[in-house]
Amino acid sequence: MLDIVSGGSSQLPSGMKAMASLPGGLGIKITNALAAKTIAGSVTSIITLHYLRIARRDNDPNALFWALVYAGITLALMIF
Q1: Quick check: is 75 in a domain?
Q2: 4 lies in a domain?
Q3: Which of 55, 59, 63, 73 is 20 to 30 A away from residue 28, measured at CA?
Q4: Distance between CA atoms of 43 and 70, rounded to whole angstroms?
């Protein structure tokens, strides 16, 4: 188990040592935020593909609308 809180960052790879040494656990917060952003982007892209499949299969304009909405959300998550 990595002991980042008590300063036991000697077990971490060199790239992660800088993140672990940030004050106030900021490195962990940044890592968690990036993980949450990645998961949210993945979920919205799956929803987008689902609505695109429905729109193509049923020729449904409402499903196409929601696919575009979720595609916009996915792009916003990836950009910001």
Answers
A1: yes
A2: no
A3: 73
A4: 10
Contact 54, 63 (CB under 8 A): yes
- Supply 73's token pair: 């959300």
**What's phi and psi for 8, nearest 5 deg?**
-85, 60
CA distance 35 to 48: 20
18-59 tens-digit pLDDT: 666 677 788 889 999 999 999 999 999 999 999 999 999 999
Contact between 77 and 37 under an 8 Å Cβ cutoff? The reply is yes
- Number of domains present in the structure of the chain: 1
- For 65, the domain range is 9-79
Task: Tell me how far CA of residue 56 lies from CA of 17, 20, 62, in angstroms.
Answer: 48, 47, 11
